Amino acid sequence: MSEPAPPLESALLVPVPEAEPCVQKHRFRHDSVALLGVPAHITVLYPFMTPDEISDSATAAVERVLEHFPEFPFLLTRLEHFPEGATYLAPEPAAPFVDLTMAIAERFPEYPPYGGAHADVIPHLTVAQTPDAPADELAEIERHLPIRCVAREAWLMVEDDKGRWHTRTRFALARSARA
Hints:
alpha+beta
């Protein structure tokens, strides 16, 4: 008897289209989710509900939380490395992303950030999942820094039964005179 397939996943994220020209080819080589349809992004909450658990009321609850957050500018200023080996671009300021994550996690306490694996929320845009990204590729990314960005929306993305990711719902952040 074969083992059952792992449950499908979902995630809430802030897409960062301004970073795509700089990081896309590197993410395609070193971040497996990039080839599965996940754009350059900063995670708000992962893992979230399985796709079949996402109801209209859950989507409305996410929208009610996010509607209180204004869009905001940020910079991707430097490459950093997690101890586990992933390389990422750090956003400045990081606080608005932490605030988004904490507000969603407070509303959905059964889905802690990163499944509760980490004590702190460290906003990041992953460029490589493994520590073996070549130094010349990282230097190429660094030449484009800082990257000016604006967080305008959050996306609820879901995985399908083939492992590909699709945007299910887009949530606009409130318009802001600052952004």
